[in-house]
Write a structure and sequence with these properties.
By secondary structure, the protein is of the alpha/beta class. Helix content is 49%, strand content 14%. It has 15 helices and ten strands. Strand 2 and strand 3 form a beta hairpin.
């Protein structure tokens, strides 16, 4: 068993390249479906944020693919064109990277708060799609635990850390621009949209949020914000001083052809926090527009205090990583676990055979059901054994494996 990953992030790829590899939730779910049965893959987790896309694999000895090539082929782009923007990591290097990512130590804004949630959500989505195996489950869960320890014990954040907070601070410090008292519109009501609206109100802005009409009729916006229908955004925009767009839409929320006819007699700052872009880059050519995107804001300075905090954080990560390796160190048992899984799968398929013979089904369907039963039994046994490995010492676990293998190999399903 091994852990592989590949990804693109803000350190190698600009916004337009990252947009090519941006995944919506629906697209990730489809990826998990399409990858099922791929030779050598035991588990998969994909994480897609504004600043990175990373795909993680738990693989067995049969795996012979390149994660980067697999992903490029899946998206339909040439590997050689995008290879310079990718990084591939394996085993310890991959594990260390995930822990640093979860702790915000690889983020554009060091110590950002959102990444812990994003790592947890990536695991939860993979789990809900039955794509995460036990190795990735444990790895991601421990990475989140480590990140929470860093947040509370290392204090690498000295203030609120998010793109919108950084954007507003940079505008104040570098351009002398303050949003207090200004009329602001936020396009988007997802996590980033709500955070932007809340932050703008904390800075003293008059905030209006666009909402779409859903069948449920329930749309949650921050307390104190006004709302308008999404379709009213262009009519509302000329009266604004500041506009933030943060949606997951694959299409522009503000197009140049829609903006250019507007009659605007004062400057408006447009902040595009989406990947892929929400606002047409051509809008920057309008004389009343100042356009920013997620790559416009960054922190280059690290104080001595922050560097010391990062050293403490790395020490915490090293401790938590050893917990993973302690659990993962049971890989000497993998050949025996594989035999037990195979025996359980064969057992389940054999039990189903008499019922399938009697069933009024085509031969192809019967074979498919047999394979599904075999696979379900293997996954159940795998989950059970990895859970046992985490709660008993090696000697006890070895005795359990020996007993299970003996029972499975000596059981005659025709006698049951």
């Amino acid at each position: 068993m091994a852990v592989w990953m590949a990804g693109v992030d803000h350190t190698k790829a600009d916004l337009d390249v990252r947009s090519v590899f941006s995944f919506t939730k629906k697209r990730i779910e489809q990826l998990y479906i399409d990858l099922r049965g791929t030779r050598g893959i035991e588990g998969c987790i994909l994480m897609s944020t504004c600043n990175r896309m990373e795909i993680w694999f738990s693989v067995n000895h049969r795996a012979s693919f390149s994660p980067m090539e697999l992903l490029c082929e899946y998206i339909g782009v040439r590997t050689e064109k995008y290879a310079p923007y990718f990084v591939e990591r394996r085993d310890r290097e991959a594990v260390d990277h995930l822990f640093r990512v979860a702790a915000g130590m690889e983020s554009k804004i060091v110590g950002e708060d959102q990444i812990i949630t994003q790592v947890g959500e990536a695991l939860a989505l993979s789990r809900s799609c039955y794509a995460a195996d036990h190795t990735l489950e444990v790895l991601f869960r421990l990475a989140v635990t480590a990140a929470k320890r860093v947040k509370t014990e290392a204090a690498i954040t000295t203030s609120d850390q998010s793109v919108i907070h950084t954007a507003l601070r940079n505008l104040e410090e570098e351009e002398g621009y303050r949003v207090a008292g200004r009329r602001c519109m936020v396009i988007g009501n997802g996590m980033m949209g709500r955070l932007s609206a809340q932050t703008l109100m904390e800075y003293g802005a008059d905030v209006t949020v666009t909402v779409r009409q859903y069948r449920s009729g329930i749309v949650d916006i921050p307390l104190g914000a006004k709302r308008i229908n999404y379709d009213q955004r262009l009519a509302f925009l000329p009266g604004c001083d500041f506009v933030v767009s943060a949606t997951s839409s694959p299409n522009y929320t503000l197009k140049y052809d829609e903006l250019s006819p507007l009659r605007v007699d004062h400057p408006i700052r447009l902040i595009d926090l989406a990947v892929p872009r929400d606002i047409d880059p051509l809008a920057a050519g309008l004389d009343w527009v100042t356009l920013y995107d997620v790559d416009s804001f960054h922190i280059d300075r690290q104080s001595e205090k922050l560097r010391e905090a990062l050293d403490r954080a790395q020490g915490i990560l090293d401790e938590e990583e050893e917990r993973f390796y302690s659990w993962y160190g049971g890989k000497e048992f993998i050949p025996q676990i594989q035999r037990i899984k195979a025996a359980a799968g064969n057992n389940a398929a054999a039990r189903l055979t008499p019922a399938l013979r009697r069933a009024q089904l085509g031969e192809e369907r019967k074979q498919a059901l047999s394979r599904e039963a075999e696979g379900a039994a293997e996954r159940m046994i795998n989950h059970l054994l990895h859970g046992m490995r985490g709660c008993m010492d090696e000697d006890a676990f070895r005795l359990c494996l020996n007993a299970m293998e003996e029972v499975l190999n000596t059981t005659d399903v025709t006698d049951l």
